[in-house]
Structures are given as structure tokens and as C-alpha cells.
Amino acid sequence: MKRGFEVVSSYADKGIHIPARKTASSAGYDIEAAEDTVLAPHEVTLVPTGIKAYMQPDEYLGIHVRSGFSIKKKISCINDEGIIDADYYNNDDNEGHIMIALYNHGDEPVPVEKGMRVAQGIFYSYLTVDGDEAGRGAKRRGGMGSTGAL
Description:
Blueprint: E1 4-7, E2 29-32, E3 37-39, E4 44-48, E5 51-54, E6 59-65, H1 67-73, E7 75-77, E8 82-85, E9 99-104, E10 110-112, E11 117-125
GO molecular function: dUTP diphosphatase activity; magnesium ion binding
Family: Belongs to the dUTPase family.
Keywords: Hydrolase, Nucleotide metabolism
């Protein structure tokens, strides 16, 4: 198992599509909304995707809002780039369900329909410093935001 996507069990029978690249040179895998949602003006909304991602221990999945959606509807990821760590996959809290935190900069609600491609995921490798002990640490127990307090 190198890297890829799976549907989380709670969405198994809900017609979720596995992310795919649309052209030969696309860096990102298009990610769809798993259900109808409304992005309220000037607020953050978590958009469920119904998917989880697996990858190598020295990789992460970067989540980026699709440029057309961002520009046309004034939408961004609240944290600029969502980062899905390798050990988020199959965590005890939420099975690794990827939720996209979107911010609506506009003054009108933006409807998001199930199946709408709202983001793209790009797999990245990263480097660590000499003597890094984190890789020998405890197993992740929680889901989103569980690696430490603010």
C-alpha cells in the first residue's frame, strides 16, 4: 500500500467517488463534496468528503481549494492548505474522514451540492531534522486537530 484514497465506512453506500486526476499533467486529485452543504457568508464550514487517504509515513496530503471555485465564489481553505498527515488514516475518532474547512469571503451564501468538485489533494514528501524522535512516538489517537493544543 503506497498511497491512495478509500471511502470511509459511514459513506460506503452513498455514491462517493474516489478522487481522480482529470488530465495527464494534473498535480491534484479532484475531491468532491459528499453531501449538500451551504457555505454561510464570512464563516467557516466543514465540508465532508466521505473519503480518507493513505500514504507513506514521510508524506502528507495537501488540500487546496480548486482555483475556479475559489475565484468565482470567493472561497478559500481557512488554513490556506489543509494538511492530512499519514497517521490521520484510520484514526480512532473518525476513521480518517477528510473534512475541508472552507471560508466564504463573500456576502452571499454559497450552495455546495453533493458531487461538486470543491478541492484537490496533492501528495507531498517532506524532510525531517537530524535526531527527530517524533517518528518513534505514540500512535495518533484522535482525529482532526488532535496532535496538540493551540
